[in-house]
Design a protein that fits this description.
5% strand; three-stranded antiparallel sheet; Arc Repressor Mutant, subunit A; 3 strands; 9 helices; Four Helix Bundle (Hemerythrin (Met), subunit A); mainly alpha; 74% helix
Length: 216
């Protein structure tokens, strides 16, 4: 796993690693684990792992059940549509704001995310693409300078990434990358209207995937 860096605080490292394991289905949907098992797998202390578990539970990715263990959230295809319906508006807000306020630091992160995404497509590396997508969302949160919208979007982005990994990752890399890179270009151009439209197009693409998954 490469979802976090060794320089992160232990709690952040635990969160990012567990999030990655859930998104990539390494922790299977609807399965049960124990806190002790997660501590052992992550090689971190009880306190940071417990903090990560609590945060992921608040985001709806885990369910802590006393005496039964920790339940990984199930994946019901129809829920992807609900996630995207909730996500669409806030993504437009973030895209507009990012185009208006993007900093040099955020621009560098966008360039890195776009490059990583394109490399992942060429290599057909789904896990690398997932990481690049996460990096893009982090850049968007930084560029938008709106912590309220970013905090609202983050768990929805994670849920959506998990659904995409389960139902579309085998065929959707190039098309998804094209839409993400278009959004990045509009943001870096400082074009708020184009960024908003690109965000809407990206959400429409994902909604099409979700509708197909729901009718399988």
């Amino acid at each position: 796993m490469e979802a976090s860096t060794t320089t992160e605080p232990a709690a952040a490292k635990a969160y990012h690693t567990l999030e990655h394991m859930i998104v990539t289905l390494e922790l299977a949907p609807a399965s049960f684990v124990t806190e002790g098992t997660l501590i052992e797998r992550l090689g971190l202390g009880r306190t940071p792992v417990r903090e990560a578990i609590q945060r992921l539970a608040w985001e709806g990715l885990l369910d802590v059940r006393p005496r039964a263990g920790i339940a990984i959230a199930p994946l019901h295809p129809g829920d992807w549509l609900r996630v995207l319906d909730a996500r669409r508006g806030v993504e437009v807000v973030l895209a507009r704001s990012a185009a208006r306020f993007v900093s040099r630091e955020a621009a560098d992160l966008f360039h890195e995310a776009a490059l990583a995404m394109q490399k992942a497509v060429i290599a057909g590396n789904v896990l690398a693409f997932i990481q690049a997508d996460k990096a893009l969302d982090d850049a968007l949160a930084l560029a938008a300078d709106n912590p309220f919208a970013a905090r609202l979007a983050a768990p929805l982005q994670t849920h959506s990434r998990r659904f995409w990994f389960r139902y579309k990752a085998d065929t959707g890399l190039a098309e998804s990358a094209e839409h993400h890179v278009a959004l990045i270009r509009s943001i870096l151009d400082g074009d708020e209207e184009a960024a908003a439209e690109d965000a809407k197009r990206l959400m429409a693409l994902l909604r099409g995937h979700a509708e197909a998954a729901a009718t399988r």
